[in-house]
Specification:
2 copies of one chain form a homodimer. In chain A, strand 9, helix 4 and strand 10 form a beta-alpha-beta unit. By secondary structure, the first copy, chain A, is α/β, with parallel strands linked by helices. Chain A contains 11 helices and 24 strands. Helix content of chain A is 25%, strand content 28%. The first copy, chain A, is globular and about 65 Å long. The first copy, chain A, has 3 domains: 177 residues, FAD/NAD(P)-binding domain (3-Layer(bba) Sandwich), CATH 3.50.50.60; 127 residues, FAD/NAD(P)-binding domain (3-Layer(bba) Sandwich), CATH 3.50.50; 124 residues, 2-Layer Sandwich (Enolase-like, domain 1), CATH 3.30.390.30. In chain A, the strands form 6 sheets. In chain A, strands 1, 2, 3, 4, 5, 6 and 17 form a 7-stranded mixed β-sheet that branches. In chain A, strands 8-15-9-10-11 form a 5-stranded parallel β-sheet. Chains A and B meet through helix 1, helix 7, strand 20, strand 21 and helix 9 of A and helix 1, helix 7, strand 20, strand 21 and helix 9 of B.
Chain lengths: 448, 448
């Protein structure tokens, strides 16, 4: 039986980063990653919506296995089916057994499959991470004439925009909530995204669900809650993901409120020799300390950097997930960091808003400049910035990262008003109308 | 005689922002800006290199006067020639006298005119901020066949690239130092910028100065220190700026080591009723507390936000200038925040470097992705991040701003390694290879 100091189960975002982090902090530790995906078959997770449109094909969206080999990490391809916590071993479906000193679970998440009649029909599928299935789906998608996407969160909206690009089909998104991207954005930002999608000829039906999917072997239509019917030769489901906690459950590990594997602030599960990170792990909100449903590749890697560093001593603590989202449709981008106004109110904060519309380059008339809107959420009681939303051009996500940095440091609106930002005509807003700084000033005035 | 609670001298970046800040924090305060520029004649300062190329003309590069009027700030056009500190009045060249409660000096800087023989020839000029002179220069520049730019700092390099675009002339930069942009960047980043400029057919001559400018009334050639001669029908000088301290000196205010008007951390001059901000004010380095030669529009506005808030009580303190630079040539951009490796060593820091090359989108093969290099400077003693340099695409300057935010908060490499960044395929690097986070991790390993 092979024995490793650290065994990691999972090969997507969290697993490899946990492994690299172990090797960075403990160069001599022996590390094994066990994963189900064959050689050169691990998808870049957030790249999946783009494989048929912008990126071109699944084979252009691979996390290279050299990430493991160049860092001296061993790879075992197979499905881990059992953890024996007493003997500290993992067994795979092929019957291979490996011993561990510490085990890191990075088993990811599984797409939610809603209980809609007709889900079993051909050409109906949630967004999958499986390279083979994606390759199988490619010609079907490219030939489709009518595509229905269920769910207008980030994955749904990105998939819709990209399959439109790949197929030229009629693409319609069906969303039960009032707006697209509503869990991540306030309505005015959702509205901007909806306008952009509409301009790109993506149909959007909100406040309506799918009652049934119809067809004869293959899907041919979708019936909505209000009785309307939509033609469909492909149905894509993007309504979220649920932690893949099966192996952990079977091993008797504690499971959290959102079905993630319970972990403490050191990413340690209820077994002191087992850590968990990424989509499979239970998350805590940075702002409220309560369980959080956030599942993002970025958060997965952050947790992996904590888990990987903590295998011998508790070097790193998880302060809870801030949550930074971004997406783009053409040259329009929208992003958010921390709490929306809506989420902040719901969490009981007394929220003060600062909002500034300017341009992402300066002067505003310079070629390539896009309008940029920044909204900051400030907690009236502490003065701290607890959220930001941005709509604009290609720099939108990095502006969200500037705000994320402010939030992570517990900066107040006063601190942010004195942010020592750099500016340049071709690359940033003007220092005079700088949106983050001026939104902070606005909020300050309101706090008084 | 008119009387204002706050009189501000200067109408470029710092003056208006100081005025707006006063009105934000003290809505009822009466505020007057005195400036020399006529209506709709104030240039966006950093936009000046772009007016003949990208922006098209000086009239497209105006700071709108509505910035003052919409904020209830009065404007007096004229040259302030005297401050009477006893009677607390300012007098202009036209003989108008205005009384002040507090006076804010935002008189800016003047371009350095080197003592080169031939400086007085026609078509030889430093980069000016005067709208009329710029309009006068426009046809001369557009018709030029051979242009020599003296100085390859940001202004020199940007001017060279833009006048090339506007005129199609042969453009050559002459720089005394070993590399372009050498005061802001380490050699490897300077080198990337030089390669980009060379590809854009800008001639670059380094480690060589200008001995004399020749011509008959009008310039026709430039003679270098090594004896070489360059044809030139236009010579542009971009070798820096010096604080415009004349009025302050005349009023007997204390002047600092770099010739800026001396100010304390509240931006107060040696007269408690007079504050100063922007290029005219003496600056202190955030890292060393020593006098600093940084002069940037961004810093000017930050100081203006401090000065403007401090007119009645000391609300804001200046921690010293971090210094965030950025520029772009075509779709290549380069930026820096805080200290370079060279500057950090010179200041006596024991510096540890983390450096990561990745792509600014992910997967790296996604259309539009540009290689992105991030270098972090970490102080071995405290573990704090004290500088960052970035080369890449359009998001480069905002990435520098993320690093600036980290520096401003005194984050250590360990803090930055756990940065809760957001990522998205079309907009940012991968969370796995995230350059800021991984550069911090690299530095940590070296610190041990």
């Amino acid at each position: 039986m092979k024995q490793y100091e650290v065994v990691i189960i999972g090969g997507s975002a969290a697993g490899p980063v946990a492994g690299i982090t172990v090797k960075r902090h403990y160069r001599d530790a022996s590390v094994l990653v066990i994963r189900t995906e064959k050689e050169s078959q691990v998808m870049v997770p957030c790249g999946i919506p783009y494989i048929f449109g912008t990126v071109g094909s699944p084979s252009n969206n691979i996390i290279p296995d050299t990430l493991l080999s160049s860092n001296g990490i061993d790879l075992l391809i197979g499905e881990a089916t059992e953890i024996d916590r007493d003997s500290k071993t993992v067994t795979t479906a092929d019957g291979e057994t490996v011993g561990y000193g510490k085990l890191i679970l990075a088993t990811g998440s599984l797409p939610v499959r809603p209980p809609i009649p007709g889900m079993e029909l051909k050409n109906v599928s949630p967004v999958l991470k499986d390279a083979k299935l994606l390759a199988y789906a490619e010609p079907i998608l490219r030939k489709a004439e009518n595509i229905v996407v269920i769910g207008c969160g980030f994955i749904g909206a990105e998939m819709a925009d990209e399959v439109k690009k790949a197929s030229g089909a009629n693409v319609t998104i069906v969303e039960t909530l009032k707006h697209c991207l509503m869990l991540a954005l306030d309505p005015e930002f959702s509205h901007m995204a909806e306008e952009e999608l509409a301009e790109r000829e993506i149909g959007i039906i909100t406040e309506n669900g799918v009652k049934a999917i119809h067809g004869n072997e293959k899907v041919d239509s979708v019936e909505l809650q209000n009785g309307d019917k939509l033609k469909a030769d492909v149905v894509i489901i993007g309504i979220g993901a649920t932690p893949n906690n099966e192996l952990a459950k079977k091993a008797g590990l504690k499971i959290g409120d959102t079905k993630g594997i319970w972990v403490d602030e050191y990413m340690r599960t209820s077994d002191e020799n087992i850590l968990a990170c990424g989509d499979c792990a239970e998350k805590t909100c940075f702002f409220t300390g309560k369980p959080s449903g956030l599942r993002l590749a970025s958060i997965a890697t952050i947790e992996a950097r904590i888990a990987g560093a903590n295998i011998k001593e508790f070097k790193r603590k998880n302060p809870g997930a801030i949550g930074v989202f971004a997406t783009a449709f053409g040259d329009f981008a929208v992003a958010a960091a921390g709490l929306t106004e809506k989420a902040a109110n719901k969490a009981g904060f007394d929220v003060v808003i600062g909002e500034v519309k300017t341009f992402d380059r300066h002067p505003g008339g310079i070629p390539g400049a896009k309008e940029s809107t920044v909204k900051l959420m400030v907690d009236k009681k502490t003065g701290k910035v607890i959220g930001g939303e941005i709509a604009g051009g290609t720099t939108t996500a990095e502006i969200a990262n500037v705000i994320a940095m402010a939030i992570q440091n517990g900066m107040t609106a006063e601190d942010v008003a004195l942010f020592q930002m750099g500016t340049q005509p071709l690359l940033t807003p003007s220092p005079i109308t700088h949106p983050i700084v001026n939104a902070a000033e606005q909020a300050l005035v309101k706090i008084g």
